[in-house]
Amino acid sequence: MSNYYQKEIETASREEILKIQNEKIVKQVKHVYENVPYYRNLMDKKGVKPEDIQSVDDIKKLPFLSKDDLREAYPYGLLGTDLKNCVRIQSTSGTTGKRVVAFYTQHDVDIWEECCARAIMAAGGTNEDVCQISYGYGLFTGGPGLNGGSHKVGCLTLPMSSGNTDRQLQFMMDLGATILCCTPSYAAYLGESLAERGYKPEDNKLKAGIFGAEPWTEEMRKSIEKSLGIKAYDIYGLTETSGPGVSFECEEQTGMHINEDHFYAEIIDPKTGEVLPEGTKGELVFTSLDKEGFPLLRYRTKDICILSRKKCSCGRTHVKMTKPLGRSDDMMIIRGVNVFPSQIEAVLLKEGYTPNYQIVVDRANNTDTFDIYVEFAPEQFSDKIADVQAREKALNAAMRSMLGIGPKIHLVAPKTITRSEGKAVRVIDKRKLHD
Amino acid sequence: MAITQLSAFLENTPGTLYQAVSTISDAGVNLRALSVADTSDFGILRVIVSDTEKTKAALSDVAVCTETKVIAAKMSDEAGALKKILAIIQETGVNIEYVYAFTSAVAGNAYVVLRVNDVESAEEVLAKAGIATLSDEDLEGLL
Predict the structure, then answer these.
(1) pLDDT of A172 strictly over 60
(2) What does R_g of chain A's alpha carbons equal in angstroms?
(3) CB–CB of B11 and A413 under 8 A?
(4) Are the C-beta atoms of A298 and A46 separated by less than 8 Å?
(5) Same domain, yes or no, for B64 and B117?
(6) Do B63 and B10 have their domain in common?
(7) How far is residue B7's CA from residue A413's CA, in Å, rounded to a whole number?
């Protein structure tokens, strides 16, 4: 018997869920059409009227939204209600150009936190638990989302935020944390740090971990479970749709249940945009069903995955998605941060370098390594090591301010970066994230 | 008088120094002095040669090069000689970025190469103290 936050809806029959979705989508489309001129234009261009959408089957008639639309409409273009009704923003990392600012009304915050509460209870959480939240707090959705979910469940919440490992471990041990929420790489790091301090996995009181915001493998799951003596659950979400909790794992650990009463999921062919049948691999597209502040219809996540309606032993009836199996664009997730090669190129040009570079991402000790090899121009060369190193340091700082994380910069001689078939290989990802 | 040093950027991998030195050798140029500064990623090869122009033309094909003015101060090949020179420089407040030394074929002659942040001031005080420094012309016939 599984542990539910909202058992009735989480285990509702397919018919009941469809009924809820059909009612909500009609209202949501009407709300967007009336309040979001940007999307109204897209619908008008496509010749779709709100009354054409009578059920979720009609969603395929609607135009897609992409990250480019979000960028174009920044900051208020996709706002779905008056700002006076909004109580919060959250934002993705990255440049102004790539940054996404999402707006939340109190209703939006509530449904988001409920989704997170479902995830925590699916991981066995109750009001007797001590929930340590070591995701970053602030603009990043990880900390605030799980924090709200933990409150809703009634856990004693430890709002640790990320970093300061000594303090993390002290609170974990002294206050007997039973659930840990953070990125999988940080969980692995905490596990190692405990071992280094002489603790055995059974010395802590943790029973479960809810890990997300970056890709991780089954192998990594096993290693974290062993080092912390817990069961590790995956959680998925993106700022555009609210944050973590769009989908989450149950004890079966065979995919993440999408909260279908709030989000309608489609899988499309990333090239043609055609909707693909269930069980086919393709790009995940979300339509919010009851959001006010930042409602997005047919938002292309660029994450490649597969949906499954196979009956789940946990009793939940909501559709399950696999972990993202890849991306349909060139975005990388490094230490939980979204990184686009175009951002790196922009920094290089701004700092006076040629856009000849190579990004190498790998994983050492369960943490992503991030190196950028950059060709310097002959006139940038100096006979002093200190000058070259100062250039590397300055470039690291510029990258850090743009990306939110600092890569190790390696200046290399002009024309030395490997080019294959005349075209430079920009990204080498050695992490083997997808099984 | 300051002299011209050539510096080349070399990747820190096997064979790069060999390639650079072979190029200089193939150009028929004699190395007067050499130093390599290294990091885990790269090294900077610095050379003083008999023919800077010729060397630069050849070396540019295999590595990024740059010319730098450095001071080569003559010292007697005996204990305390370098100390004397450094003491003079120190008094002026000129900063030394790096330093290396070489000896000449003439017994008892040695030179210290100084890369400083203010070549003019360093030259001036050395000249005042009666310490000889090499010029580019000297390099051609240096024994």
Answers:
(1) yes
(2) 23
(3) yes
(4) no
(5) no
(6) yes
(7) 13
Nearest CA in chain B to A392: B41
Residues in B whose CB is inside 8 Å of some CB of A read 5, 7, 9, 11, 37, 39, 41-42, 44, 46, 63-66, 68, 97-98, 115
Burial of A307 (0-12, 13-18, 19+ CB in 10 A): buried
Range of the domain at A42: 7-328
A341 & A287 share domain: no
Residues spanned by the domain of B29: 2-68
Residues A307 and A423 in one domain: no
From A125, A112, A113, select the one nearest A250 (Cα to Cα).
A125
Assign residue A180 a region (left: φ > 0; alpha: ψ between -120 and 50; beta: otherwise).
beta
**Residues facing residue A428 across a β-bridge:** A360
The token pair that represents A101 in the structure block: 């600012």
| Mode of pairing for the β-strands spanning A156-159 and A130-133 | parallel
Please return the burial class of A235, using the count of CB atoms within 10 Å of its CB with bins 0-12, 13-18 and 19+.
Answer: buried
In a domain, A154, yes or no: yes
Number of domains making up chain B: 2
The reply to whether A131 falls in a domain is yes
Q: What is the CATH number of the domain that holds B54?
A: 3.30.2130.10
pLDDT in tens, A332-345: 889 888 888 888 88
CB A297 within 8 A of CB A289: no
**Cβ contact A381–B66 (<8 Å):** yes
Is A434 within the bounds of a domain? no
Q: Which residues contact A75 (CB under 8 A, 6 or more apart)?
A: A101
Mapping DSSP onto H, E and C, the string for B61-92 reads CCCCEEEEEEEEEEEECCCCHHHHHHHHHHHH
How many helices and strands (H and E) does chain B possess? 5, 6
| DSSP strand pairing (A299-305 vs A320-321) | unpaired
DSSP state of A378: G
Same domain, B29 and B80: no
pTM beyond cutoff 0.90 = no
**What CATH number is given to the structural domain containing B137?**
3.30.70.260
Q: What confidence tens digit (pLDDT) does each residue in B64-78 have?
A: 999 999 999 999 888
Contact call for residues B36 and B17 (beta carbons, < 8 A): yes
Contact B44 A385 (CB under 8 A): yes
* Per-residue pLDDT at A435 exceeds 90: no
Question: Encoding tokens for residue A29?
Answer: 């489309």
Shared-domain flag, residues B51 and B91: no
Residue B6: other Cβ atoms inside 10 A: 22
Contact list in B for residue A388 (CB cut-off 8 A) is 9, 39, 42, 44
